[in-house]
Amino acid sequence: MKKFYQKHEKFLVLSLIAVILVIIAVYAVSFKTQQINNTYHVYTVKKAAPYQGQGVIKANSTYTMRIPKKAQLTTELKTEQDVKKGQVLATLHFPEKETELKQVRAQISDLQAQIQDQQGSLTDNSSNTAAITDNSTAADSNNDSDQAQQQEIQALQDSLAQVSENQQTAAQQQISELQSQLSEQQAKEAELSEQVENQVSAPFAGTFHLKQRKNGQIELKVYAQKLVLEARVSQDDYTKVKPNAKIKIDNSVQDKVKKSKVSFISKLPLKQKGTDQPAYKFSAPVSSSFLLGQRVNFSLPQKGLELPASAVKNKRVYVLKADNITQEVKLKGKKSGKYFIVTSGVKAGAKVVSDPHQGLQNGDKIHQAK
Fold first, then answer.
1. DSSP string, 304-328
2. Which contacts qualify for 120-124: CB closer than 8 Å, 24 or more apart?
3. CA-based angle 251:254:255, to the nearest 5?
4. In whole angstroms, what separates CA 311 from the centre of its chain?
5. Is residue 74 a contact partner of residue 90, using CB atoms and an 8 Å limit?
6. Helix or strand or coil: residue 247?
7. CB 41 within 8 A of CB 354
8. Are 304 and 341 in contact (CB under 8 A)?
9. Residue 82 in this model has a pLDDT that exceeds 80
10. pLDDT tier at 36 (50, 70, 90 boundaries)?
11. Strands 88-93 and 326-330
12. Which residues have C-beta within 8 Å of that of residue 41, sequence separation ≥ 6?
């Protein structure tokens, strides 16, 4: 044995060293793996960041009227002229309606003439009937006339009276039809009279603007004097904008920040370029120190504290205590986009695990990822 050890001493020593190194390596790998599995990203809880973005200064209201191509427009105003509520902006004249009105008036004159003719004919028939009656009476009073002749005259008179009565009935029916047509044409005349020419008045005080579109159509506009910031908020950030919420608006013209409040937020979605997610319009009133069409930056302060939404599981979060020991804490708040807005449960400055997995338990000691 001694001879074997002496003969293989060097080999045995090297083998022992190799085994020790393998054990150390295995332990180091195992320790490293365990450390990696127990390493987490940590986030420091802070006050919720304000919601920021860009918007455009627009008129509070805009009146738009596209002038029909068949209309002739006349106005005494100049573009960008200030107007008062109710002030006449322009007069529209429709030549085709005027031509149609002349035709209707001609038909009215013709119908009135026909009615007068029928009424005259009716008067003549009445006179003839009266004459026949008078002749009949005279014949009855003549005692010397032959009885047979009187009977023939009476028959003839009766026949003429019947014809006269039929003519009167026909004339009366004709007059009734003509009067009905006349009433229709007179109603049409009244309607066309209003359409031939009409005035366009300002619905509110503002700035008058007149321009010609690419298709040649003339467009009339009135921009209200009151201005508003108009901006959009994405679907994920919708809860960050509320009616009456305070908003700060950067006026680069005066190099000042103006304060206002959100006056309106729409519930109707708008399409956004480059994404399938909708956006929603909101607005806030601004002073006349801003310019119409001016692009501005805005900031909406947010209440509460924020931390990554990924850190919250079932409204619970792991807070780091001394020596990186975890403590499970229940939160109150709600998700807002990529963040969870906390109303109670943790304080600003607290450190929380931002990417916990199912294996993490209350009281575990973790390593912070660098």
1. SEEEEGGG-BTTEEEEE-GGGBEEE
2. 121/167, 121/171, 122/168, 122/171, 122/172, 122/175
3. 70
4. 39
5. yes
6. strand
7. yes
8. yes
9. yes
10. very low
11. unpaired
12. 353, 354, 355, 368, 369
Angle between helices 95-141 and 147-196 (to 10 degrees): 170
> Vertex 163, ends 158 and 168: CA angle to 5°?
125
CA distance 350 to 196: 76
Q: Is the pTM of this model over 0.85?
A: no
Buried b / exposed e across 327-336, counting CB within 10 Å, b at 16+? eeeebebeeb
Strands 367-368, 39-40: pairing kind: parallel
Residue 242 in contact with residue 235, Cβ under 8 Å? Answer: no
358 neighbors 320 (Cβ within 8 angstroms): no
Task: Please give the structure tokens belonging to residue 358.
Answer: 């199912």
CA 38/CA 369 separation, integer angstroms: 10
Say if residues 282 and 317 touch (Cβ distance below 8 Å).
no
194-249 pLDDT per residue, tens: 999 999 999 999 999 999 988 889 999 999 999 999 999 999 889 899 999 999 99
Tell me the mean pLDDT in the region 119-145.
Answer: 55
What are the residue ranges spanned by the domains of the chain? 52-61+226-300, 62-87+202-225, 95-193
Which residues make beta-bridge pairs with 257? 250
Coil, strand or helix: which one is 214? coil
Nearest to 247 by CA among 290, 284, 205, 210: 284
Q: What is the distance of C-alpha 109 from the center of its chain?
A: 50
Using alpha carbons, select from 300, 302, 298 the residue that is nearest to residue 229.
298
Q: Does domain 52-61+226-300 have CATH number 2.40.30.170?
A: yes
